[in-house]
Design brief:
The structure is a single chain. This protein is an alpha/beta fold. Helices cover 46% and strands 10% of the residues. It contains eight helices and four strands; from the N terminus they run E-E-E-H-H-E-H-H-H-H-H-H. Strands 1-3-2-4 form a four-stranded mixed beta sheet. Helix 1 crosses helix 2. The longest helix has 14 residues. The relative contact order is 0.11.
Length: 180
């Protein structure tokens, strides 16, 4: 199986998704941008790096629950490369990117990179997609996107927040926001 090199000199191979596609990254870069990866690489975890880890002898970690396209997109951002949205990128793809951003607690702000394609979706989005975009904006802490999407929801279909489908049950929504 071929390896995708986000960093050709990287010292970690990440096996992504059910097919365990291989992606080479830099543990240093990933550690600087994510406290979750920092803990994985610099602790007693099985994924921890050894003194022998190098670009010619990389460590391997497996992330079978993650999406390959979303990981490649985020990985390029974290390695200071220009990410290209896949041609089939849609709101579902951007939800996966945002989910991984949240899951690994990436510190590099990506809201501005994700906002541009979402701004294009807003004007033609169905109501359920507007709710999804609003949630993405919330997780990314993207106030302009949140404001634009909220306004679009208010002018096209005024309803109460509690009736927004699947929003209130999501674990990232705080209990105080739900009124609990």
């Amino acid at each position: 199986m071929a390896t995708v090199d986000i960093d050709p000199a990287g010292d970690v191979i990440v096996e992504i998704g059910e097919e365990l596609e291989r992606v080479r990254v830099s543990s240093k870069t990933m550690s600087l941008t994510s406290p979750v990866f920092r803990a994985m690489f610099n602790s007693g975890f099985r994924e921890g790096l050894t003194a022998q880890t190098s670009s010619s002898n990389p460590s391997t970690i497996s992330l079978p629950d993650d999406d390959l396209a979303a990981f490649l997109y985020l990985g390029k951002i974290m390695h200071f490369q220009k990410p290209e949205l896949p041609p089939e990128a849609d709101i579902e793809f951007l939800e996966k990117v945002t989910g991984m951003y949240d899951k690994y607690q990436f510190t590099t702000p990506i809201a501005h990179i994700v906002e541009a394609p979402l701004d294009q979706f807003i004007r033609s989005a169905a109501m359920t997609d507007l709710y999804r975009i609003l949630f993405i904006a919330y997780l990314l802490d993207a106030p302009q996107l949140f404001s634009t999407t909220s306004w679009e929801i208010l002018i096209t279909h005024p309803i109460s927040f509690e009736s927004m489908p699947a929003m209130m049950e999501h674990p990232s929504i705080s209990t105080t926001l739900r009124g609990e």
